[in-house]
Amino acid sequence: EVQLMESGGGLVQAGGSLRLSCAASGFTFDNYAIGWFRQAPGKEREGVSCIRGGDGSTDYADSVKDRFTIHSHNARNTVYLQMNRLKPEDTAVYFCAAVYLPSLPYGTPWYESDAYYYWGQGTQVTVSS
């Protein structure tokens, strides 16, 4: 059974850092992509970052580029999201999600949340001003 579990959220002051972890079980990263998404109260879910198991390529939302870094440790079946210089607008529940890449139609953008089949329960990140 495929399972994803996020950890590492918490309360931090603006300008601080957190590292989120997504531990996966039931599959290996070959031919999968792992994405980080977030959802704040009253707002739509948005893509934050993505990493692909096959070649390790990554994508970032413009709002977090140069502040967040995604990294995978394949031997541990874990993906990390290092978040630096956090801002109050980063406050949200953060989710990790997985998708089997060969199942995607051509041209599906990485940030399309509906394309991801497996989801974790989420971890709360709160950034105070």
Structural descriptors:
mainly beta, seven-stranded mixed β-sheet, four-stranded antiparallel β-sheet, 11 strands, 50% strand
List the helices and strands and how they pair.
Elements lengths: L2 E5 L2 E4 L4 E8 L6 E8 L6 E7 L5 E3 L7 E6 L4 E6 L8 E9 L17 E2 L3 E6 L1
Parallel strand pairs: 2-11
Antiparallel strand pairs: 1-3, 3-8, 4-5, 4-9, 5-6, 7-8, 9-10, 9-11
Explained architecture:
Helices cover 0% and strands 50% of the residues. It has 129 residues and is an all-beta fold. Strand 5 and strand 6 form a beta hairpin. The protein is globular. The mean pLDDT is 94.
Quick rundown:
This protein has 129 residues and is mainly beta. It has strands at residues 3-7, 10-13, 18-25, 32-39, 46-52, 58-60, 68-73, 78-83, 92-100, 118-119, 123-128. The chain is globular, with a radius of gyration of 14 Å.
